Amino acid sequence: MLWSNQSGGGGGGPWGRPGGNGGGPWGSGGGGKTPPNLEDLLRRGQDRLRGLIPGGGNSGNGYGGGSPSGIGGGRSAAVIAGLAVAVWLATGFYTVYPRQVGIETIFGRYVGTKGEGLRYNFPYPIGGVVKPDVGSQNSIQIGFRAGPGGQGRNRDVPDESLILTGDENIVDLDFEVQWRINPLKASDFVFNLQNPEGTIKAISESAMREVIGRRNIQAILTNEQSSIAQEVKEMVQKALDEYGAGVRIEVVQLVSVNPPPEVRPAFIDVNAAQQDADTAQNEAKTYASREVPQARGRASQIFQQAEAYRTKATADATGQAARFSEVYASYKAAPAISRERLFLETMEKVLGSVNKVIIDQNGAQPGSGAAAGVLPVLPLTEFGARAQSPAATGAAR
Fold first, then answer.
1. 392 Cβ contact partners less than 8 Å away, ≥ 6 residues apart
2. What's the CA gap between 129 and 237, in Å, rounded?
3. What pLDDT score was predicted for residue 145?
């Protein structure tokens, strides 16, 4: 080599000095160590590398003593290519995390869906994997845009919120559509929808305009908002299923439903009047539901009393008629006796409840020594009163 020691022992290499005292990097002075042979070092390193590679340690084969341009070099290139292929195949391992599914393709063609865990597919460019998030709930705002952090409304979008109603009025309607990727149809979502949010937004806005266009504004502002949201949800879901979108609509929520700002005060007054009318009707219905049963109860009571009186009067009349028939039959059998009995019974009824004094006109007989008739001094009125008094009655007992 150019820098090996010469035969004179004192010749200077690149680190030598005249006079034989020059020192190389591995020694100094004439008595220093001999520098190592770099060719030997390189050859030894090549031999060790061939020993590590299978089939590469054959150095004495007559092809230049292990030269890199021989068979050993070709085997090294094959091993390196094999290692590269192994590394390339190892890149096919992938992980499907929770709330995800793995959509596998080979040469761009769908071959299957994998669940969470460690999975394998042919690496790029042969195979591919798409991992859509099927667990997150997505939201699309139509007619408004939420403020920072999704709280409140940042601004209105009149081009989306102003909708024509069935009675040719205009309503300012903001709503929100919440949706998820259907885990059972995630491949449809990946391959059939290029712009999922834009597609869902366009379908939802079209469905809302169709539903609102079939209703009057008064019903939209008052009592049909829940039915509107449900109908729009069903229409959007049906359209997405027909497209094979792989999307599931969770909720359609009406955020605000108002008339346009220019006529809003008038609509508020109309709504208040409608609420007052509903309140009056409810109060009237409550009063009717309370009074009508009471009136029916009273009517039923009067009817039952009339029925009872009719039954009693009919029974009394029937009894009296039967008694009259019996008396008439007895009268026909013995008229004189019947007349006398009727007279006595009638006098008994008439005189039984009045004060009376019985005077026997035949009480004073001739020759008895008593005065005829009643004495003028006899206090008949007081006598009758004493006879009717409770004391006299108790004494008589």
1. 386
2. 27
3. 86
